[in-house]
Amino acid sequence: MDVDIGNALASVASPGVSRDSLERLDEQVADAHERIETGMAEGEHGYAALNLPERTDPDEIRAAVEPVADAEALITVGIGGSALGAATITDALDSDTETVYLDNVDPAWVSNRLEGLPLENTAINVVSRSGTTAETLANFLVVREAFEDAGVDWTERTIVTTGDSGPLRDLSDRHDLPSLKVPDGVPGRFSALSAVGMVAAAVCGHDLEALLEGAAAEAETLTGSLFDCPAYAYGATAYALDARGAGMNAMVPYAESLETYSEWFAQLWAESLGKDDLGQTPLRALGVTDQHSQLQLYRAGPRDKVVTFVTTRESEDRSIPATEVEDLAYLGDASLGELLEAEFEATEASLAAAGRPNVRVELERVDEYELGGLLYGMEAACVLAGELYGVNTFEQPAVEWAKNATRGLLGGGEFEEAEAVAEKTELRIEQ
Ligand SMILES: O=P(O)(O)OC[C@H]1O[C@H](O)[C@H](O)[C@@H](O)[C@@H]1O
């Protein structure tokens, strides 16, 4: 990926970051890079994720999915980092395999998603790093039951990806299911380029090697200066803008296929950086659609946002048919691709003209190689930003708190967090 931070400069935008400030920040980037390199070399928790392009073995993943390689549909049961990486990849790329992600436990929605699937030719991909996440295990039990009710042997169609131990590992061992391991030291939101994200990609027939090669090429760019490394340029600029008041970061891909990527980014950015009263709030939007809803706020609302555009240089195109209506003749001379590009350029320019900071992330096209680079690049950007903020990028204690409270409420053990639920302050206004 390439990154253009020109519209984040103080000469263009407010908040903005001056060239001099970036030069000074670059000294901190050099120190942070040293820390990151050490973490990677020693396989430290979290930093180990940046070694995935060379650690992940595509053959091992393909061997595990071999029994279901011809599946017409794939149900992935997982949540957060155990679903969003896989969903980003399979939603971005074309495949004949239908994909369903069960990452919520809304009962009507779950039933609806399962309805009409050809279960005798559907694979199940269960993913949980901890192997204890209530939503994932509950949905897996529901899916199993649906298979049993349909007279389909789910044990023949299930692949499990989890840690070395835990309830999901036990269940997988008991039924002798093909299983893969979440690599050590890799938190869920940084695991897209491991079996966690790539089992679904393999079942859908995507090029795993190209995903990893794209990521490896991005890894090659990690150096001690933000001026030489697109990922660090992005992470450092987002951090610098946040420090100057841009506490929100709107991720706006100009490719429908990257809509899920914004969800993945939101988890990465929020869960990694949101701690110690610090962090930048990720917002999700989509070009061109949200030009007609959110752009008003981004251009004229509070000066508390940076907009990140993701664009592609090449994509499939489709011409716009000519029309006899004179006022619409300009459309007939163009294509949908040209319209998309013109809208992106106009939106970018409109923000810059209003002095609103924005950053452009450019991909060649949406394919496995570029996607691998984008996922890796944003992970590296996030790790760098975490170093600059001085937070523990790889933990998520606030999320664990609510997980414990939920388990306590359901009788899954003694958790003091559950007591807070009964202590809620009320000020009800009733109908
Ligand atoms: O993979 P699991 O252990 O099931 O965890 C799934 C998700 O659970 C929690 O909500 C964590 O905050 C996320 O980081 C994690 O990705």
Automatic annotation (TrEMBL):
* Top-level taxon in the UniProt lineage: Archaea
Its primary localisation, in coarse terms, equals cytoplasm
Give yes or no: UniProt keyword Protein transport: no
- What SUPFAM superfamilies does the entry give? SIS domain (SSF53697)
From its record, what is one biological process in GO terms?
Answer: glucose 6-phosphate metabolic process
This chain's function reads: Catalyzes the reversible isomerization of glucose-6-phosphate to fructose-6-phosphate.
Which HAMAP family does the entry mention? G6P_isomerase (MF_00473)
State the protein's name.
Probable glucose-6-phosphate isomerase
Q: What is the lineage of its organism?
A: Archaea, Methanobacteriati, Methanobacteriota, Stenosarchaea group, Halobacteria
